[in-house]
Amino acid sequence: MKRRVLAALCGLWLLLSGCSLTFPGRTGQDAEQGRTLAVYRLADDAGAGALTGQELFPLPAGAVPAVRAAVELFASPSEREGLSCALPEGVKVEDWSLENGALTLTLSEGFLEASPMERTAGAMCAALTLCGLEGVDRVSVAAGGRTLFSGLTAADALLRDTDTDPFVRQLRLYFTDETGRYLTSEYHSLTLDEDAAADRYVMEELLRGPYGPELSSALPAGTRLLSCATEDGICTVDLSREFTDNMPDTALGARLAVYSIVNSLTALPQVDGVTLLAEGEPIEAYGDMSLTGPLRWDDQPVRAAATAADK
Known about the structure:
alpha+beta; four-stranded mixed β-sheet
């Protein structure tokens, strides 16, 4: 039931106000066709730590129409069984504004009458949804003439389920877009034990592949994870021989494979760089790239995708 979801969100009350990372937009379609947005809803039954769920909707082309449509979709009733709108019943979006990457939602005064947990749930899902728009880095929520949540982002939304005691974390993963030319991000909700290693979960999810049908894995077929560990900010990933034996034929494909891993792992706050191994041996080169030394975040594959979509 939704009540159980709200209880699970209690520990998020202070955490959300301190988030500071961005959620790049989910691209993959050009501006003439519009884009696809994941709208986050609350799960009616929060079993197995699944506190939220997604619905995918197409967006119209153009920045303003896309934001307007996204806000309307976020506030609309869910079309999927088992999911509900994240806003408390009767609460409406009265206005919105976007300036320098900051989107502010102004809600009806009924939002003030909701419980702190209900308000937190709505604000969290607003950030997860609307930071998926190109050009939206953070979300603020206001009602009754005052700002209740300021500068929320999707990253590091760590939820505690008080019934089953796992942690549910939104992890940002990078996959190849439908053009096969760029990387774009997708958030996966992962249930973690307190002692679980987020870096290993990132790698396992990359190998499982994306949720969205417009995305695809950048990793070579047959690649398996042998080990993954982070020490002093450097994550060492040991992959099976298929990663090198089935290396993409093009330099672009090789670069996307490498930075699908590197950008996904360095999105974690504890990872500053990545070292790639194959069957325990260092990979000195991959395609036309040198892999000597830890690899750092590279926004060029992601930035190029946004530029191409805006043309």
